[in-house]
Amino acid sequence: MDIFAFIPQFGGLIWTLLAFVISLSVIVAIHEYGHYIVGRWSGIHADVFSLGFGPVLYSRYDKRGTRWQIAALPFGGYVKFAGDADAASGKDVVAMAQAEANPDKLRSTMHGAPLWARTLTVAAGPFFNFVLSILVFTAIGLSVGVPKDPLTVGKLRNLPFEGSDLQPGDEVVAIGGIQLPPASDVTAYSDAFSAVPIEQPLEYGVLRDGSRLTVPGPYIMPSLINQVMPQSAAYQAGLTSGDVITAVNGTPIFAFKQLKDIVEASSGETLKLTVWRNGETLDFTMTPKVTDEPQPDGSFKTQMRIGIVGGAAFETATTSPGLFEAMWSGVENTGRIIQGSLSGLKHMIVGNISTCNLSGPIGIAQTSGAMASQGAQSFIYFIAVLSTAVGLLNLFPIPALDGGHLVFYAYEAVTGKPPSDGALKVLMTIGLTLVLALMVFALGNDLFCP
């Protein structure tokens, strides 16, 4: 049983906050544990490991003298190593002066440890975030599987179409007279699907029990909703996975491409959708939103969207991938998120796309709740995506972030000495100001962007 199914699609503030706290706590815990465990392996003592900030709700000391605590504000966390003055790893001048009298004690502090130990400890936080993402994507790949080649019918979807003769286990070799090449030839496979005529019923060439048959079926990519995107027009209107859009503004449709063309040509005008839901016909009204979509070449294209993802007329049969294949796919997924994030940031900076694409805590919380409402797998997938984003953000070369510390260590490696305490204080103040400014800007996007 999927306990997340009990979260209402338009759940209240409590559900949204709960999903946000859970997702953020997991990501922060993994990030900070990376700092902690690598620091411990490197001989650096951790005084405090904290989930959350503010008043301490619970704490205990382990046998190494580290205090593990849960604080009242569950919106972050930190590891305070020996010699640190604060959660941002600023130097405690008094503590370091006392430690200098004892070489062993000095070695166990963050600021007295060798450069390699400090570098590995700081880099471990983002690295563990990326590892979490890769492991989650790997686990999802292993559980969901990969589509069989040739394309094989799995479970038939519930559609408002009668007369289909497709059966589970059919190997689809042609659709609408278009022969399907091997799925391994990605370009040819995609071109073949693009060439399928938009008609219903559609003829399918299938292999069934060793015989080649031609059978009727629904259009291969019907106007079916497979997923509703958080904070989209469709989500706000109440559309759900499994809905089939049968008409737009009174015009009957059956193909997802027909819906896509109408939405893109709408110029943001309100659309009236007729939806088939488990045999019942419902009416919805929504206004498409301007969306900046990443393209394969790294650019962005602005389109009108209602925020739904389509699906095939049937679930494709799958086969279990090997562990290495699934893990490599996890690495590739994580890499695509990093690449897409950097590309989006670049295009926002140069003004090619709206800065409203940058979400703050409210937007992330809303997305957390929306993904949780769509099931455990969607929510866990979201955690993996957010974990990659958090790891990447922490690598930005801004003082107070992990990337800023790594820049300081690179300077030390080149010059043979760290920046002066005075310079570090100034740079850390600048870094904290930049981080706070970014948070305020993102929060403004949450409140004022359409």
Structural class: alpha+beta
Largest sheet, strands/sense/barrel? 4 strands, antiparallel
Radius of gyration: 26 Å
How far is it from the N-terminal to the C-terminal residue, by CA?
37 Å
Number of helical elements: 12
Helix content: 40-55%
Helix and strand sequence:
HEEHHHEEEEHEEEHEEHEEEEEEEHHHHH
Which residues form runs of ≥5 with pLDDT under 50?
Answer: 1-11
Overall pLDDT, averaged?
90
Secondary structure elements and their pairing?
Elements: H1 13-41, E1 46-61, E2 67-81, H2 93-99, H3 103-107, H4 115-144, E3 146-147, E4 153-156, E5 171-175, E6 178-179, H5 186-194, E7 202-208, E8 211-217, E9 227-228, H6 233-237, E10 244-248, E11 251-252, H7 256-264, E12 271-277, E13 280-286, E14 289-294, E15 300-305, E16 308-309, E17 314-316, E18 318-319, H8 323-350, H9 361-373, H10 376-394, H11 402-415, H12 421-448
Antiparallel strand pairs: 1-2, 3-18, 4-17, 5-6, 5-7, 7-8, 9-16, 10-11, 10-12, 12-13, 14-15
Helix pairs in contact: 1-4, 1-9, 1-10, 4-8, 4-10, 4-11, 8-10, 9-10
Write structural notes for this entry.
Helices cover 44% and strands 22% of the residues. The chain is an alpha+beta fold. The strands form 7 sheets. It has a 4-stranded antiparallel sheet with strand order 6-5-7-8, with no helix packed on it. Strands 11-10-12-13 form a 4-stranded antiparallel sheet. A two-stranded antiparallel ribbon has the order 1-2. Helix 1 packs across helix 4 (115-144). The longest helix has 30 residues, at 115-144. The protein starts with 12 loop residues before the first helix and ends with a helix.
